[in-house]
Queue: 2 jobs
Job 1
Amino acid sequence: MISTQELIRLIRGPVAVAEPLAPYTGIRIGGTADFLIKPRDRSDLSRAFGYFSKLGFPFFILGRGHSLLVNDKGFRGAVIATHFLDQIAIEDDIVDADAGVPVPMLLERSLQASLGGMEHLESLQGTVGGALRRNAGIAGRRILDHVEWVDVLRNGRVKRLKKRELQVADEVPVVEADVILGAGFRMKKLSSKEKQLAKKAIDFARIDRASVQQSPEAATGRVFRIPLSSGIQGSSAGDLIDACGLRGKRLGGASISVDEPNTIVNDGCATSGDVLELARMAREEVQTRFGVSLELDLTLVGY
């Protein structure tokens, strides 16, 4: 049995009860969670993890919610949000970032220090923690390729996993089952000319992302990714969905975005079921036409 008063005494960050989750997701869909807490730092998160784990109470880690789909019935458990885990430290060519740092912010701060090499990930909207959990990337280039270490909570203890321990088995990151606290990224030192080129690449991706975000509808992040084993190079999941003629495809209150076909839009009355069914249809179309079984890049909660 969870004691709200005990939880408030234990956690330094805000604690909410029966909190609606839709506002915490990019697509603005989802029922309530029993608890939602926002730890102040890594130690605060560790205490929350220990508390819920000891009681056997279900919980999940919430980043910025771009790649999250919550059941309309909600989540019977606790949500631990990483909004305050937003620190970045730079030493030489290593950038140490908390799990709650948005990937675009990581790249921007790195560029300010004349460090780069990860500009191809600028279009990722989520946090470092979420990207690492899914090993997110673009056209076969993934975030774990740039990691020197990942700090995780494993079996209640903080553990630093070095690069050699982070290989992907069966395309599933070894950190998928861990609570990610942060990571160290080895960047490339940029010359003045390289810095200008990197800035142009980041600015272009930012403008492209902003043009989609200016749409009045709420939307998911990337719904699918192409498996590394597919051997496809130079194309994205969105390219394959587009080639199937699915831009604008509608089901209930959800539709495939006309701007980014690997994104599903909430037209105002979409349910989580609408989104899942539309994703299933798109996946089947791509499988039929190209023989590629797209991987779901959304995290499902409450299912």
Job 2
Amino acid sequence: MKRDITKYIELDNLDLELFICSDILKLNSLHYGYWESDQELSLDNVRKAQTRYTSELLNAIPAGVASVLDVGCGIGDNARALAASGYNVTALSPDKNHAKYFENGNGHAITFHNQRFEEFQADQKFDLILMSESQNYFEAKIAFRQCLQFLNPGGHLLICGMFRKEETSVFKHVRNVEDDFIGEAVSHGLQLTSHTDITDHVLPTLKFANQAHRNYLEPSLALLKYYFRQTSPLKLRLLKLVWGKQLKNFQKIYQYYDEFFDPILFKKHVRYLTLLFTLNERE
């Protein structure tokens, strides 16, 4: 069962991860980006890598595609790029914090649905379904059943995201194991037509986050804890009393990212893949 960290990240209707990425770091995307070799680890290059990632996604779309269903669209950077390139885009996200990024279309003709892919219903079928870092949020069988319902015959499923190399107890929040996922897709009539490992192109984002985690977050938290213990033990007790639940949730978030931001551990257990499937015509 996938470990759902989102229930910890949202504190009092604030999506903490979204707030950090969009309001503090001023990122226009939530995904890992696509780095070129030998780039300096910097926030500016994270932004450039995220722009490049979206370009790589668009380049992976086969000819003849006109309509796209963007599943797990996040704050809409991929959806807007698709619309700007002339695709008819429908975007899905169950996160209420994402809805504001689609208000008034933000200058693009995008149909947005604030709901889960598992519950999505529509009369329309699509030439391509895109899952950018979203395929781990639901069971593979459910995803493929929905794909069969909403893909035109000969349509495509484009996935870019993380897969575990094998079934282990590490990185359980990455729900899907690569071989099992591909096998399930084939059993649903989806043929794998392209398989690209881009792990090395996303690792710099993890390395950058790991550096920030070690160099800034850990010392800041240690200093804050020391300050309260030495100068204001009463304030610390009051803080734990009033914000006890939030502090526990924050600790769970901290432990989650402490594992996730380890690039060596990540590469040992996880591959970041771009997969393109094509639905058999008879479907």
